[in-house]
Amino acid sequence: MSVRLGQLTADTEFFLSKGTTYFLNATFGWPSINASDLPGGGPAYPLSTPGVRVAITPNDKLSLLVGVYNGDPAGPNCTGDPQVCDDNGLDLRFDSPPLLMVEGAYKYNQKEGLAGTIKVGGWNHFGSFPDQRFDSGGMPIGVNGNPGRPIDGDWAIYGIIDQLIWRVPGSEDAKGVGLFGRVIGAPSDQNLVDVYAEGGITFSGMIPHRADDSLGIGFAYTGISDRVHGFDIDSGLPVAQNYEAALEICYTAQLKPGWTLQPDFQYFWQPGGNVPGASGNGAVENAAVFGARTTVNF
Questions:
Q1: For residues 150 and 130, what is the distance between their CA atoms, to the nearest angstrom?
Q2: In the chain, what is the straight-line distance between the N-terminal and C-terminal CA atoms, in Å?
Q3: Which of 90, 178, 220, 234 could disulfide-pair with 198, CB 3.0 to 4.6 Å?
Q4: What torsion do the CA atoms of 225, 228, 230, 233 make, to the nearest 10 degrees?
Q5: Dihedrals phi, psi of 9, to nearest 5 degrees
Q6: What is the pTM (predicted TM-score) of this model?
Q7: How far apart are CA 96 and CA 42, in angstroms?
Q8: Among 115, 246, 219, 220, which Cα is nearest to 177's?
Q9: Interval 84-103 mean pLDDT
Q10: Secondary structure class of 171 (helix, strand, coil)
Q11: CA distance 175 to 203
Q12: What is the C-alpha separation between 35 and 191, in angstroms, rounded?
């Protein structure tokens, strides 16, 4: 058992999938549903918050993580960008309702065979959240401008799987062809995003004499809640939010020991979840992004 206590983030320990480490898009780390639904984006880089985390590992197959954090790293008075409200990421806040996170994991065939990991977990926030469409009288807030009906608490549940489907012969670190997937669900009433799903395939150690090269292909779907979609319709917006989807393809090449180059391609369907464009007459168009990252370890 291990215990961590202090100014913490949750994204370095919860929701982790081995397959998602191949990608640059932030949603493959701390998923967009957490960043959108939790106050201040949740306890994730670059905003840490006071918390305690307990990890229990009875054997090399089973593990349990439990964390309790201050529920809003940017503070309840922040109305803009959380990273501006807490511009150093070190504010010691204890004035928000707590956030509880729990995750269990089961690993198998790690040393030989087709290695895999299954994780299930969830979070529960003990604060109050406004209904995204209706006020306390059941009337649309997009029409009358009233605040949303207060709802006690918020939560999400998730499942993660990493599965090797072909292993490089003799590989002790489970290199080969792997599949990964994450599915997360949250209630629609008080959340911008109520469903998130991603999946993909990775290739590592496939090329002779280039054991540290890898290729990743991933797809992520962010579903906007029915409440928010209905609010947009009630408000008379030219388009109504419904979903955003992203495809990423990246190759990591080792140029020298400790030095890698990672060209990257991303394509987005309905950026922002189908929101009005600059002209106000239609939605923001689909977008393609090309980039590269180089990393030096020393």
A1: 4
A2: 31
A3: 220
A4: -130
A5: -120, 155
A6: 0.93
A7: 12
A8: 115
A9: 85
A10: coil
A11: 8
A12: 11
